[in-house]
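Action item from last meeting closed. Structure (245 res):
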């Protein structure tokens, strides 16, 4: 097999393509890397484009997948965290990572706003809440319906991370799914499942798990969501928003 050794191969005129091999051939490139900003397939379809700094755009839908990280907010003595939502995605997923209140025994709540601002963080919702609770010293456990945190057409914040401790090693974690917020036909269903180091039990801490299923009782499109503790700020933690299409 013949070999060609050279430092560079360039087209004879600017703007011309360089073709390696013919249709049906296999072209082997043994280099450790290929430095290029736009990658296309044999049909000329762009697979992705880089800005040269690692930021991708024009990612082909066949590669992008159904789950996309849209935004991350890191709390630092933060009063509340808001995100914009729309009809761009069928489902929005929020991840709570090591959320900790400034003072102990505080509950993180969830509310939303509609397009036009007529209902800002006070949309009527109906919810059903269950919880499981178990002590570190193995002396207490319970699984039951949480009637006082199950509401009918309430306009307050629905608590989703319940009475989180602010011990140095304590926090709350979990996930919330919001379905079809841009719909103008259906109410807006959502549910969350979370686990916290519970601070309301005194010296003995608890693993506290809570499941909330709910819907915002409006057919207006939702354009924003908000998270905050029932009192005091969010001391630390991350909230990530993903879009699912």
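Sequence:
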């Amino acid at each position: 097999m013949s070999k060609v050794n050279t430092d560079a191969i360039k087209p004879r005129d600017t703007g011309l393509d360089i073709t390696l091999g013919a249709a049906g051939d296999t072209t082997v490139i043994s280099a450790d890397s290929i430095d290029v900003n736009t990658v296309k397939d044999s049909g000329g379809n762009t697979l992705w484009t880089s800005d040269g700094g690692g930021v991708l755009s024009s990612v082909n839908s066949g590669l992008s997948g159904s789950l996309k990280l849209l935004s991350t907010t890191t709390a630092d003595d933060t009063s509340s965290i808001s995100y914009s939502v729309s009809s761009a995605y069928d489902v929005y997923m929020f991840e709570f990572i090591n959320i900790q209140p400034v003072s102990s025994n505080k509950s993180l709540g969830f509310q939303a706003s509609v397009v036009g601002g007529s209902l800002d963080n006070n949309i009527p919702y109906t919810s059903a809440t269950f919880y499981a609770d178990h002590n570190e010293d193995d002396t207490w456990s319970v699984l039951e319906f949480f009637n006082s945190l199950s509401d009918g057409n309430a306009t307050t914040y629905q608590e989703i991370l319940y009475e989180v401790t602010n011990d140095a090693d304590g926090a709350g974690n979990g996930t919330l799914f919001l379905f079809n917020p841009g719909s103008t036909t259906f109410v807006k269903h959502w549910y969350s499942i979370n686990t916290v180091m519970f601070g309301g039990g005194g010296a003995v801490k608890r693993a506290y798990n809570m499941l909330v299923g709910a819907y915002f009782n409006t057919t207006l499109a939702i354009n924003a969501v908000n998270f905050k503790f029932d009192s005091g700020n969010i001391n630390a933690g991350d909230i990530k928003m993903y879009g699912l299409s």
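Note appended to the action item: The longest helix spans residues 61-64.
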